[in-house]
Amino acid sequence: MTVTTIQESKGAAGGVWVAALIFLPPALLLFTVFVILPIGEAAWYGFYNWDGYNRPQNFVGLKNYISLFNNSSFRTALLNNLIIIAVSLAIQLPLALAMALLLARRAFGSVAFRLIFFLPYILADVAAGLIFRFIFDGDYGPLSGATQALGFGPVYMLASPTWAMVALLVVIVWKYFGFHMMLFIAGLQGIDRNLYEAAEIDGAGAFQRFRFVTIPQLSPMIKLSVFFSVIGALQFFDVVVPLTGGGPFNATNTMVSFLYLFGITRMRVGFGSAVGVVLFVICVTFAFGYRRLLMRDD
Amino acid sequence: MKFRTFALASMGVALGATAAFADTTIRWLHLSNDDAGTVELYNKIIHDFEAENKGVKIQLQDLENEAFKAKLPTMLQSEKDRPNIFYSWGGGVMRAQAKAGFLEDITAAAAPLANTISPTALEAFQVDGKTYGVPQNTGEVVFFYNKKLFAQAGVKAEDIKTWDDFLAAVKKIKAAGITPIIVGGGEKWPMHFYWSYLVMRVGGAHALDDAKAGKDGGFKNATFVEAGKRLHELAALEPFQAGYLSTSHPQAEGMFGDGKGAIELMGQWLLTAQGPNAADGKGQPIDNIGIFSFPTLPGGKGEATDTLGGINGWLVGKGAPKETAEFLKFFSQEKYQREAAAKGVYIPVVKGTESAIENPVLKQIGADLAKTKYHQNFFDQDLGPSVGRVVNDISVAVAAGKMSPEDGAAAVQQAWDEQ
């Protein structure tokens, strides 16, 4: 009996090795070619002043990084990323949680509302940007139409650096809260009803049940949601370009739209790569730090 | 072994077959933004050329404007995908391509073109005395105005000669309750036309070249600072439409077409674009549109006849078949270019074709271009993509008072040093 088990497990181990030898190389090759190499290349280009033609030749050391941090538009972009993170965490996630609490029950119409709130997430980012560009348009947009109907003048939100950023944040919350709501609904439905019953028997009120049953039970989902929010905010790009084009005065760029507008369209591939490297370092630091600190047990 | 011989043999047959089918294929890459009339003309020229040159085939390919600019550097890197003929705005981008060795020197083959095309236009496609391409069309950035709105405000375009005349006209139009100027500030480059023209009027024909050569503090010198001051002076009158900082260029063209403002500083393409972008799809009738030149500045070295505008044409990719240059010469014949002029699809660079222009406003632009002594390529093309976009950025920021004229000029110099 014992002998056969050992033999079996030996055979299984050998099988694993064979399987690894067969299945690993294609994946590893693709991963290397499409992930590892580009990362390495970006790091390498970042040390060159290169316009994308021929091979990079003009080695400039850390100059790209220095001019990057001296660039006020980049600092604005970095700050904007932090603002997007703050708004995602302080407004978007609580809103998503509130909606999830309302819609997790099997009440009449809850499925329909879930679908409606989730729809913006499915919409292509560029389409969302264009739709809201129209909504916020001071001459033809419905928002301006509404303020004029109320007797105020037309509003040109996208023409003011501050309000354009507000407009961008509105679109972000509108577009992504549905996704987090779905995560929370899935989490809420996984909570054992008995816990609520037990809490109720122990005399816990509605808020106490929320605070001491729902939140702890939902915490893996909340941690995941925060993780997605932060990484999503750091890599945010698609809505910015159609909505504001990073303007006015480069006040609504994120790091990625800055990379695109200052690196790619200006044919400064070396400089753009340096932006990419900075972004990569921030994302990796956050991802590993966060997982290590908060998601250890999940 | 046998298999390999067979494979080689069949490959040889296949190659031979294609060779017999067409000896040479020329790949010609243009912009999909070209209108139907232009493409029709291109196809006609291809048809005629192929009929006269048996064994040469021309493949017309196209990419959208922004996609073209983004994809071209990659296409040029590949010997297989490198287009033989491709569209170009000349300037810094072309110089970078020439320096990288992606362009074919056609100096000898193109020499006869000097008889039919103006030297300014030909020089736009030369780098260090070598010819890498052939110009096709040119244009002018000029003030377009709405005649009815001018009459309503009691302003006469003929009277606008100096910068002060212009500012006075703007004030008068504004006082009449009309938006004086429309600008697509959201895209920035429409505003850089103001800064460019001001530099040209203040500093004259050598200002830009001197700055590039680093003379007199380069872009930080008084000319460029003065241009910024004048631009801010204009913007301080609040002449632009409300929310101009977020207006896109097509929107601005539509507003001009809708008669929502009196003036727009734009290239000749405004004439064909204002209609389709207008709310009624028609825009202003041509007899309601007039033009006047950018005003001169007191004490400025530039002349009223100096023009800003593109000189666009075709570059030849490295390794292109020798028939390519022949085709471009064939293309540049007066009979075809007269047709383009008559159709009003573009203003050809071939001498004498301007008489074929029928559109009255375009005809006037053609006349301006025929008498100009200094024609300047768009700053954002001439200076190359990285410096050019900084010029666009600072033009809007200086106009809006977000940046001082001195800081604006310094930012351009810094971008010039960093590139």
Q: How would you characterize the overall build of this protein?
A:
The complex is a heterodimer of chains A (298) and B (419). Chain A has a domain at 63-125 and 160-294: Orthogonal Bundle (MetI-like fold), CATH 1.10.3720.10. Chain A is built from twelve helices and no strands. Chain A has helices spanning 2-45, 63-70, 72-103, 110-122, 125-135, 142-149, 161-189, 193-201, 206-234, 240-243, 255-264, 269-294. In chain A, helix 1 (2-45) runs antiparallel to helix 12 (269-294) and helix 9 packs antiparallel against helix 12. The longest helix of chain A has 44 residues, at 2-45. Chain A is flat, with a radius of gyration of 25 Å. Chain A starts with a helix and ends with a helix. Chain B is of the alpha/beta class and 419 residues long. Chain B is 49% helix and 13% strand. Chain B is built from 19 helices and 13 strands. Chain B is globular and about 70 Å long. Chain B starts with a helix and ends with a helix. In chain B, 50% of the residues are buried. The A-B interface holds A 49, 51-54, 67, 137-139, 154, 156, 158-160, 164, 244-245, 247-250, 261, 264-268 and B 69-70, 73, 76-77, 93, 96-97, 99-102, 185-188, 242-247, 251, 255, 384-386, 389, 393, 396-397, 400, 402, 418-419.
